[in-house]
């Protein structure tokens, strides 16, 4: 098992324990998608996450601390969806079909 895979599995388990059950591993052994536009990558000993244009990082030896920070931001985003989210969702999902989003 690779270092990235181990790190992402630990992070995913911690996020799930904090109630972020929608997070899932992308399948590249290094990426966890938390929510549309909020993605965490593990690389070079750090968890690096991106949310829109904002980039953050956290030590890879602390999946608990990283999960807390990411879960907190996930909760904030759910409570107050940023303006860029609708544009990103439209871009990723494409045009609605027969009035379905």
From TrEMBL:
This is Uncharacterized protein. It comes from Nonomuraea guangzhouensis.
């Amino acid at each position: 098992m690779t270092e990235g895979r181990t790190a992402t599995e630990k992070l995913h388990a911690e996020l799930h324990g904090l109630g972020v059950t929608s997070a899932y591993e992308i399948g590249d052994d290094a990426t966890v998608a938390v929510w549309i536009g909020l993605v965490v990558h593990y690389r070079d000993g750090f968890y690096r996450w991106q949310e829109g244009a904002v980039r953050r990082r956290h030590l890879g030896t602390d999946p608990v601390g990283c999960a807390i920070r990411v879960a907190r931001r996930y909760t904030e985003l759910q409570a107050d969806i940023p303006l860029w989210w609708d544009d990103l969702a439209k871009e990723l999902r494409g045009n609605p079909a027969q009035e379905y989003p």
